[in-house]
Each structure stands twice: as structure tokens, then as C-alpha cells.
């Protein structure tokens, strides 16, 4: 923390022309240290430390007690919701809470289903039907851990109104790993030990009578309900173990709404906690809120290449201080991980941070409004690709802008590194192999018999499974609309079902075949139990059970959200633009690395040789090496920009040279005096018309139109809600 403050002070002190840039970088440096402040205020400790029970009566009841799970089904895929409900019902009494028009498949699972457009009223109706002393509220993606929940329910003695635990992933098959969640849970747990009262999604058990006498408010964060009860004298206990396992989304269409909603809820809860409790608790809540809004200082830091590529080059000292700021960020990251006892995984953390950025930006609204209801934004399925394209174009445009002086080597290196990173990320996002799936897979190695031939499975999902066969061995009947199969489960039983082939993937002498299963209610319950047992013992190192054995997971035709035509067109446009821009960026990077500089012609002074919108590529030469007839890019001190004109004469006087240039369409020329060792550009070749889009962006009407269109899209996205 002291290092961060020192770096921030040095950034401001060493700034001269770039005062705004210095302030932004200093703010980003201090803001990013918020997690360390939380760690210092809550005391050092590791994730494995046991959370003590707050002040109150010591539990003297039995080691376990019954509990009821209330599953709030939203827009999760149907197979995910059915799996969650069946596993919850196997753990104990279960009630399903959903909106009106629930699919009939939910009513056939043998558990009560309450349909109500008002979530708060529906919850009141659900609580009225509970006959146990404890309630676990989970989403349609979370599965209770029965033994842990019973131990938690036993701690709800008089004066203890709730018990908080943790969630664990149901499977490792996710759209993207979220290592930031591990850090968040550890920080909140440490803050909770110091008195902070906050809700833990999918991992908070509540006393039934307390929930009956004080219904939840649908519009306020759930943590506010806990804090009001704490103000009335109620206390809470904590379990340092998972009490629920969560099936994270595995496709882009479900990942972004789910992630944004969870980040919104967490931020709204922590922001609301800033106004209650002791000074320490308020500071802890403020620090955790700032951490959830990490994208704001990230935006401040991203201004570096945009400002640095301008006509004024930062001093060497400024560049050095910025480098120290980057080093300080690495030290902060390592210190936080070390203080929490978490492993060092930089690549995974960077990936998780990138994918959490959109939700963090949206969560700024949660910090301001402190409302529980998160907006459902109409984001494209690949928002990070669009963001990468935008930043790539903006940053790259400053490098090929012929109206500014050539930036210094440190600035050029920074900008090129940013371009390369953005391009690599956009291509990595396009290469995601999980777009088409909506259900998870777990490693599963059991036997399957079809037409008298026995195969081995490699993974299973709520919708089906994948089996492996030798390419020169027996095959399944891919033409059959209903393929009879018998699956031998690992508990010694078997289920009979019909299936159809959904996909094939060959690897060497083996072929993996995906099957969609058509299961009855009883067979589905047995299949879900099998998946649960496999998930509890699954791991990426398990031999012969690779999670990525099939590109497309077998999924029922009606599984997952439907995409409209506009979304498909937008997604296709993003892919096409990414490919085109990537090729241009790669070409620009290669040119710059080999000493060439692409520039866009912005005036008619060189017609007919070069037209407006042509791109010329110049090589770096010394001013003293220019010769009459060359087309050169030289600084024009009178206008503070550069000119690309034909050289008329070059006259040397001592260590200086006077270069006279004139545009092919001009009747007058210009002279500039340069040091003989000054680097200038000499045009080698040109590409017609390629720079016309860049010229159009410089037009005021075009800029106004683009800003208006962007604002209209943003307003429409924010206002669009999905019930």
C-alpha cells in the first residue's frame, strides 16, 4: 500500500505536459490497492482459516438439522434447472419458485412449483409451505451439499438467524474460469470475521421463523435484510466449507447475463453496507466495493497509449515511473494472493479479469443505485471481441495518423504491445469452442451398450453423453432417429433410453460420438444422480476422461436461449470485422517492426500521384539522405503536424540540412531545417483507397452520427429488460 502511494505521488510529481494522464494513472494506482486495504483491515489469514461464530449463544443442538431448499428458477437452460431441482430434492425438501408460464417438465419432477410474477410474494408463499427450521435460497444453477447444509442448519440456535458458507464449482466445464471469485469470497470471509454483514449468493441459510416474520424486500440487496436483522440483535454464524455447488455457464449467451447479474448483486450489497456498522465495517465495505469496480481504474490506465501517441512525447522519467507503476501492480497482485493463501496463477487471473470487465463497468450503476434489480443488457455474444476491435482501431489509428509527429521508441513499443495483446485476445475469443453449448459436461467413464456392442463414455451432461470408439471397430447407427441404448451406472444399476447422434469428432485412430438422450422421469433422476457422483470425483487429470473430448456438447433441441436474427447478424458482423481488422493490424505491426510507417493521405496536395484516402508506406531514413524527387514525410513546424510532399532540394550547412518540399498539386513549397541525423520518412509504395474510412472518421458529421448511434444503442440496451 505504501509503495502504491509512493508510485502515485511520483507519477504526479514527474508529469509536466501530461498532467491529465498523470492524474488518471495515479488514481488507478491508488484505487487498485483497495483489496490490500481490506486485507490489512480484516487481518491476515488464509482461506483455510475457520470463521468464528459471532457473539451470541453457543450452539448446543444436534450436529445436523433438516433444511428446505427453495430453488429460484430464472432463465437457466431447462436441462440445467431440472438437474438442479432433482439434486436438491435428493438432498431434502425442495420448493421451486419461478415466474408464470413455467415449462410443464418442471411440474413433473415431484416437487411443489410456485409460479408468481412477483418474486417477493412468491417467496412468501414458498416460505409458508416450509416445515423445517432452516431454508437455503439458491438459484437455478446451484445444488445444495446436503451434509454441510445440515451442519449449518444445526447452528441456527436462538439469536443466530443465518449461517453463511461458500459455493464450489459443480464441474470444471465452464465458459471461463473465474479465479477472481475465489479472491472475492476469501476477502469477504475475512471482512466478515471483523463484523461485516454481507449476503453470500447461493450459500446463506436462514432461520425459517425469521424469514416468515420479516419477508425479504425484492428491490433491496439481500444483505440489507441481514444488516437490518443485525440491528435488531440477531447474529450470524459462518461455515468455512461449501454448502452449495454451482453449475457455471458454459456458453457466451448465458455467461454474460449471469456474470453481470452476479456482479451487480454483489456490488449493490457491498455499496449498501458502506452506510451501516462500525467505522471498520464501513471501510471494509468501501474497499470491497472499489474492488468490484476494478474496471474503472483499468480504464484510467488504458488511457496511457492513447495519450502517449499524441504529438508530445512523454519524458523518459515519465515512462520509467509508468513502468514502476506496472511493477507495483504485479507486487500488489502477489501480495494479495500470498496474504489470502491462494496459488499464484497470473494467466488465469488476467483472463478472469478481462472477462469480468463488462460486468464491473455495469456494476457502477449498482454502486450508485444500490438496487437489487440488475438490468439485462442486450449485449452481443462476444462483447470483448467488439471492445478489443474498438481499442485496436483507436490505438492503431494514432500510430498511422499522418497528422502527428512520429512517437518515441518507448511510446511506440507500448502502443505496439497493446495492439498485439488486443489482437491476440480477439482472436482467442473467436476461437472459443463453447459457443454452441448450454449445458455442462463432467468426466464420466461408464459402459454403454448399443446394438449388442459395448462402448465407453468419456463425459456426460444433463442432455446426453459422449462415447469413444476405435475408427476400425464397430460403429453406432447414425441414421437411426431413435437409437436404443443401455447405460451401466457406477452404482451397479442400469438405465435404458433412446438416443440420437448429435456430433462426431475424430482424433487419431479414435472417434468421439455425442449422443442426445431421451430419458423418462425415473431414468432422468438416476442419470442426474450419476452426474452428481461423477462431478464430486471429477478432475482434469483423470485418465481417459477429457472434458474437451467433444467440441459440441449433446444438447436437446429446445435447450438454451434462442437467438434472434439481429443477434446472429451482429455476431457474424463481429467475426467478419475481427478477421479484417486483425489482418490490417498484423500488416501494420509487421511494417512498423521492420522500420516502415503507414500513413493516410488527408489532402489533395499530392494529386494525381496520391489521392485523398490513399495509404502510403514510408521507410525510416536520415534527413541528410533525402534526394530531390523523393516523396518524404517531414515535420511542418508552422502547423505542428507532418507533411508528405515531394522533395525539391536538399541543402546542407554544417550538421543541419534544409529540406524544401512541394506537393505535386501545389504552386508553392515549404522549407524545414533539420539536424542531419533526424529520422524522417521516405515513401516506398502506396495502397489506393484503403484509408478512406479513417478519413471519414475525422469528419465532424460522421463523428456526431457515430456518437449518436452509440448513445442510442446504449440507451436501448440499458432499457431493455428480460423478465
Known CATH architecture of the largest domain: Alpha-Beta Complex
Shape: globular
Give the radius of gyration: 31 Å
Structure classification:
alpha+beta
Strand content: 15-25%
Weakly predicted, low-confidence segments: 45-62, 308-313, 431-435, 538-563, 717-723
Give the helix proportion (percent range): 40-55%
- Could you report the average pLDDT, rounded to the nearest whole number? 77
What strand order characterises the main sheet? 3-2-1-4-7-6-8-5
Q: Given this structure, which CATH class of the largest domain is correct?
A: Alpha Beta
* H/I helix tally: 21
Separation of termini?
Answer: 44 Å
CATH topology type of the largest domain: Spore Coat Polysaccharide Biosynthesis Protein SpsA, Chain A
CATH superfamily of the largest domain: Spore Coat Polysaccharide Biosynthesis Protein SpsA, Chain A
Number of strands: 22
- The quaternary state of the protein chains shown equals single chain
Give the number of domains.
5
Descriptive terms for the model:
723 residues; alpha+beta; Spore Coat Polysaccharide Biosynthesis Protein SpsA, Chain A; Thrombin, subunit H; 5 domains; 8-stranded mixed sheet; 7-stranded antiparallel sheet; 21 helices; 22 strands; 21% strand; disordered C terminus
Structure description:
By secondary structure, the protein is an alpha+beta fold. Helices cover 43% and strands 21% of the residues. A hairpin with a 5-residue loop joins β13 and β14. α1 runs antiparallel to α14 (316-340), α3 runs parallel beside α8 (179-193) and α11 packs across α15 (346-369). Mean pLDDT is 77; it is low at 45-62, 308-313, 431-435, 538-563 and 717-723.
Amino acid at each position: 500500500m505504501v509503495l502504491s502511494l509512493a508510485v502515485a505521488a511520483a507519477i504526479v510529481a514527474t508529469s509536466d505536459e501530461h498532467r491529465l494522464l498523470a492524474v488518471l494513472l495515479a488514481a488507478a494506482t491508488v484505487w487498485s490497492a483497495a483489496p490490500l486495504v481490506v486485507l490489512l483491515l480484516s487481518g491476515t489469514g488464509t482461506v483455510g482459516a475457520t470463521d468464528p461464530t459471532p457473539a451470541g449463544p453457543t450452539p448446543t443442538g444436534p450436529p445436523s438439522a433438516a433444511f428446505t431448499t427453495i430453488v429460484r428458477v430464472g432463465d437457466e437452460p431447462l436441462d440445467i434447472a431440472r438437474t438442479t431441482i432433482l439434486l436438491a430434492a435428493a438432498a431434502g425438501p425442495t420448493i421451486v419458485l419461478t415466474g408464470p408460464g413455467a415449462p410443464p417438465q418442471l411440474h413433473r419432477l415431484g416437487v411443489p412449483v410456485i409460479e408468481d410474477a412477483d418474486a417477493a410474494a412468491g417467496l412468501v408463499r414458498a416460505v409458508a409451505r416450509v416445515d423445517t427450521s432452516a431454508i437455503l435460497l439458491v438459484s437455478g444453477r446451484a445444488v445444495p451439499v446436503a451434509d454441510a447444509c445440515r451442519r449449518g442448519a444445526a447452528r441456527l440456535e436462538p439469536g443466530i438467524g443465518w449461517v453463511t458458507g461458500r459455493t464450489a464449482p459443480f464441474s470444471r466445464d465452464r465458459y471461463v474460469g473465474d479465479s477472481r471469485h475465489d479472491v472475492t469470497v476469501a476477502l469477504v470471509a475475512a471482512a466478515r470475521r471483523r463484523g461485516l454483514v454481507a449476503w453470500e449468493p447461493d450459500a446463506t441459510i436462514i432461520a425459517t421463523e425469521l424469514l416468515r416474520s420479516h419477508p425479504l424486500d425484492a428491490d433491496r440487496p439481500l444483505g440489507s435484510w441481514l444488516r437490518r436483522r443485525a440491528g435488531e440483535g440477531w447474529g450470524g454464524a459462518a461455515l468455512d466449507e461449501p454448502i452449495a455447488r454451482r453449475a457455471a455457464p458454459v456458453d457466451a449467451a448465458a455467461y454474460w447475463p449471469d456474470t453481470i447479474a452476479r456482479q451487480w448483486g454483489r456490488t449493490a450489497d457491498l455499496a449498501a453496507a458502506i452506510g451501516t456498522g462500525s467505522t471498520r465495517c464501513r471501510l471494509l465495505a468501501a474497499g470491497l466495493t472499489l474492488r468490484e469496480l476494478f474496471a474503472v481504474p483499468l480504464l484510467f490506465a488504458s488511457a496511457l497509449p492513447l495519450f502517449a501517441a499524441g504529438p508530445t512525447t512523454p519524458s523518459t522519467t515519465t515512462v520509467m515511473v509508468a513502468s514502476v507503476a506496472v511493477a507495483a501492480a504485479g507486487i500488489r497482485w502477489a501480495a494479495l494472493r500470498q496474504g489470502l493463501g491462494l496459488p499464484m496463477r497470473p494467466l488465469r487471473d488476467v483472463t478472469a479479469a478481462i472477462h469480468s470487465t463488462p460486468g464491473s463497468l455495469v456494476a457502477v450503476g449498482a454502486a450508485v443505485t444500490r438496487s437489487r434489480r440488475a438490468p439485462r443488457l442486450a449485449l452481443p455474444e462476444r462483447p470483448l471481441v467488439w471492445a478489443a476491435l474498438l481499442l485496436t482501431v483507436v490505438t492503431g489509428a494514432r500510430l498511422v495518423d499522418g497528422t502527428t509527429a512520429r512517437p518515441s521508441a518507448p511510446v511506440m513499443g507500448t502502443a505496439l504491445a497493446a495492439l498485439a495483446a488486443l489482437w491476440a485476445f480477439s482472436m482467442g475469443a473467436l476461437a472459443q469452442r463453447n459457443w454452441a453449448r448450454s449445458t455442462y459436461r463432467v468426466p464420466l467413464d461408464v459402459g454403454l451398450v448399443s446394438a449388442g456392442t459395448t462402448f465407453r463414455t468419456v463425459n456426460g451432461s444433463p442432455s446426453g453423453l459422449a462415447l469413444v470408439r476405435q475408427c476400425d471397430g464397430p460403429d453406432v447407427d447414425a441414421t437411426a432417429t431413435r437409437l436404443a441404448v443401455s447405460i451401466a451406472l457406477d452404482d451397479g444399476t442400469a438405465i435404458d433410453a433412446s438416443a440420437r447422434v448429435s456430433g462426431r469428432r475424430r482424433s487419431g485412430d479414435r472417434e468421439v460420438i455425442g449422443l442426445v438422450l431421451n430419458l423418462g422421469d425415473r431414468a432422468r433422476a438416476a442419470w442426474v444422480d450419476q452426474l452428481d457422483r461423477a462431478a464430486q470425483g471429477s478432475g482434469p487429470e483423470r485418465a481417459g476422461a477429457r472434458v474437451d473430448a467433444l467440441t459440441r456438447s449433446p444438447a436437446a433441441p429446445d435447450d438454451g436461449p434462442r437467438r434472434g436474427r439481429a443477434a446472429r447478424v451482429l455476431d457474424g458482423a463481429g467475426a467478419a470485422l475481427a478477421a479484417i481488422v486483425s489482418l490490417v493490424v498484423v500488416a501494420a505491426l509487421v511494417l512498423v517492426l521492420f522500420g516502415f510507417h503507414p500513413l493516410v493521405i488527408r489532402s489533395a496536395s499530392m494529386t494525381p500521384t496520391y489521392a485523398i484516402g490513399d495509404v502510403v508506406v514510408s521507410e525510416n531514413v536520415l534527413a541528410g539522405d533525402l534526394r530531390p524527387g523523393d516523396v518524404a514525410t517531414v515535420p511542418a513546424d508552422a502547423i505542428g503536424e507532418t507533411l508528405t510532399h515531394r522533395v525539391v532540394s536538399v541543402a546542407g550547412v554544417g550538421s543541419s540540412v534544409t529540406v524544401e518540399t512541394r506537393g505535386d498539386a501545389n504552386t508553392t513549397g515549404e522549407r524545414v531545417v533539420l539536424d542531419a541525423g533526424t529520422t524522417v520518412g521516405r515513401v516506398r509504395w502506396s495502397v489506393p483507397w484503403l484509408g478512406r474510412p479513417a478519413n471519414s472518421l475525422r469528419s465532424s458529421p460522421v463523428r456526431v452520427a457515430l456518437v449518436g448511434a452509440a448513445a442510442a444503442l446504449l440507451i436501448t440496451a440499458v432499457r431493455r429488460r428480460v423478465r
